[in-house]
Design goal:
homodimer; about 475 residues; alpha/beta; dopa decarboxylase, N-terminal domain; Aspartate Aminotransferase, domain 2; Aspartate Aminotransferase, domain 1; 3 domains; seven-stranded mixed beta sheet
Chain lengths: ~475, ~475
């Protein structure tokens, strides 16, 4: 494909995407596709000779589109959002078109420096402690996901606690980690991958608001020490997946400091709320954290993947993950004057992901980002007030930010049937969780183009399809 | 940014990228930027209010461009290539614009099904064993990098060998893994992350062609068993990073089968050569592999990230990595009729990366891909013949495919000075490695737009700047 053909097809595709965004609201949010349906429509073997771009785009329209659940629809209220925006899409396009690698500073200095710079911006924008900035002993890096960041936090904590002995001789000492029963599954996955063993992950009980109970954490650590175990890691969550609960970070931090445990903060979606001064209280206590993770790709209009991972002491992370073969040696690395991000995560190769974050921040400006986050929270609060007013329903957890957990008082089966009926209409999409063993509906409001009318129509539909008692 | 603004700015950016590809040859390949130079030009704080897209694009031109090393330049011969192509860039744009998540089949069925389908295509295109296809017990998945795939292979092997006991109780038994001294650093990194310990990674010696010595592997396994260790994993490389050596996979496979060790094949770049029947011999013996990894993002015109990872038995991988919290439960998963890729790697969230691979395969067709791969190999062979004819230089390793390792006979210092002088011209970029302790220049030919004239000019420049004896 020549440069001129790329220009022509690029325009075609941009036009298709612009039109997609204009009609997305009319498409059924959840794909109605059956297992195997797309595969049955595709040729069994790869084509021997080239096909036209027009043929490919036609297949996108006819075959791919019906198989999509439209995450960018304003009627998407499921899971946590993965909201993206036009400037972010353009940043991703630029990154792909440049096609540079950022594994070393030397392999494209701008790729590393823009990332460091924009993550320093983010630290200030979110009111994070100064020790997470590159001007200190710490620093930030873009990873693909909170799962990968959690793994890096666990492994760095493991090495710090064993004086890097595990990296050398393998896991031996009975290391023990702590989270709450509500923590995201990625922490359990990381604990397994890192060779700690799931049996050594303690799930600390939560209070009525589904937040970790510091007293229970303290007691468990004491028991474990008495049993000869070696506590090393705590993950506290700022906005759990099921109910958006916020663990009491300040008290957990005190315990971690006293017990010398690595404190990781998983602020996956809700950390973005701290863009707004009125939600900055969520950060209380993170001055004791060793690492912190927040997803710009959830609630900050930056398309996946863009997890921002910060460490208090970058040397520990780098010493944990660094392997420097001859073919990567270079003068800049040896000068010690640069950051080489290859040592900050599992992969070696890396895309120029800072571009999209830079574009998003510059396009919206801090005030623009605050405006949209506030609007989502307002809409969620409005939705919660409607739930409160309908006696068939109840709120199941505090709706502090943009997630409302609610249920029909009629019991689990009614709620599950209601959810399936709602999603089958194609007019909205919401998902469930279980809290206190009960089936709960989750209304997560965070899509870029969601407005009051979408939330209102969703509530009307819920009211309409819900049984009267 | 409205849909119409996106349309306009999208066209602007596509035009900028088309022009970039047209002028890339004239830009200095290696960035001349100094540490801190870009950061000094950026505002210290994020902007409070939004800026125009034109301002951002102007900064890309003036600030970012000088900080890039142009990986897509036809004069880029460093490391291994990370070649991309116009259809791939358009696939990435489409993926970003759709913004769907593929963690579960249910979260966008097309995202999962296209990936499975295209990876089955790839298995056939590369002549891989049928057990790697989804119609068998195995299957393929797109990961970000060979490093992440290696980690998954190590962890799955660890669990298979300990009957999933490590996942439950943590690493205890003295597990031992094997690679050659030439294996990519990602394996050592994976061994550390997985809690095996680097001391338990045996680096098996290589022969004169830098390929693993099966006899030495066998002897080491025997010694380890005698010492009470528990051998569990071997990584064989199809095309090492330093010299493109190919380990004797058939003989290593026999040993692995007899000793019941997991055999992982790292075919990072060179596996792509097996698109061509005449290079299919490289696959000899992989019918004994448990896992296989190849990077479409290195030599198959698909921009990073697009690592294709195959396992012989998907159940082992899934059982190793699966964690199913309530909020991810859904009818399709519970029916057992679908693949949920979240269980196949570290991250949970995932982009629709199959689109770009699908676009690339359809745009080029299998014959088109073969044509370009053959052309790169021919150019490398031509370059090698020129080196042979100049008595100042010598070839240091067999140039089987598209990498030529050579050096000036004048010793390490002369070669290092020569490399730095060459790269400082801005007219080409090549990097080094060490083989048998000697500094070696690597000429890797695999950029999408590299033609004979670029290779010829590179050789002329090398001849010109090389000392006469």
């Amino acid at each position: 494909m020549t440069a001129e053909e790329f220009r022509r097809h690029g325009h075609q595709l941009v036009d298709w995407l612009a039109d997609y965004r204009k009609r997305i609201e009319e498409l059924p949010v959840v794909s109605q596709s059956k297992p195997g349906e797309l595969r049955a429509a595709l040729p069994e073997q790869a084509p021997q000779t080239g096909e036209s771009f027009e043929a490919m785009l036609a297949d996108v329209e006819q075959l791919i589109l019906p198989g999509l659940t439209h995450w960018q629809s304003p009627n998407f209220f499921a899971y946590f959002p993965a909201n993206c925006s036009a400037p972010s899409v353009l940043g991703e396009l630029l990154s792909a078109g440049l096609g540079v690698q950022g594994m070393l500073w030397a392999t494209s200095p701008a790729c590393t420096e823009l990332e460091t710079h924009v993550l320093d911006w983010m630290a200030d924008m979110l009111g994070l402690p100064a020790f997470f900035k590159s001007s200190s002993q710490g620093g930030g890096v873009i990873q693909d996901s909170a799962s990968s960041s959690a793994l890096c936090a666990v492994v760095a904590a493991r090495e710090r606690s064993t004086d890097f002995e595990t990296n050398r001789t393998g896991a031996r000492s009975p290391l023990v980690a702590y989270t709450s029963t509500q923590t995201h599954s990625s922490v359990a996955k990381a604990i397994k991958i890192a060779g700690i063993g799931e049996n050594n992950l303690r799930l600390i009980e939560v209070d009525d608001n589904f937040a970790m109970t510091p007293g229970a954490l303290e007691a468990q650590i004491k028991d474990d020490r008495a049993d000869g175990h070696n506590p090393f890691f705590v993950c506290a969550t700022l906005g759990t997946t099921s109910s958006n609960a916020v663990d009491p970070i300040a008290r957990i931090g005190e315990i971690c400091e006293r017990e010398r445990l690595w404190l990781h903060i998983d602020a996956a979606m809700s950390g973005i709320a701290t863009l707004c001064p009125e939600f900055r209280f969520l950060n209380d206590g993170i001055d004791r954290a060793d690492s912190y993770s927040v997803n710009a790709h959830k609630w900050m209009f930056t398309n996946f993947d863009c997890n921002c991972f910060y460490v208090r002491n970058r040397k520990v992370l780098i010493d944990t993950l660094s392997v420097l073969p001859e073919y990567l040696r270079n003068q800049a690395t040896e000068s010690g004057a640069v950051i080489d991000y290859r040592d900050w995560h599992v992969p070696l190769g890396r895309r120029f992901r800072a571009l999209k974050l830079w574009f998003v921040i510059r396009h919206y400006g801090v005030q623009g980002l605050q405006h949209h986050v506030r609007r989502h929270v307002e809409l969620a609060q409005q939705f919660a007030s409607w739930v409160r007013e309908d006696e068939r329903f109840e709120l199941v957890a505090p709706a502090t930010l943009n997630l409302v957990c609610f249920r029909h008082r009629g019991g689990d089966e009614i709620n599950e049937v209601l959810m399936n009926r709602l999603n089958a209409t194609g007019k909205l999409y919401l998902t469930h969780s279980k809290l206190d063993g009960c089936f709960v509906l989750r209304m997560a409001i965070g899509q870029t183009d969601t407005e009051e009318r979408h939330v209102q129509r969703a509530w009307e539909l819920i009211q309409q399809l819900a049984p009267s008692s």
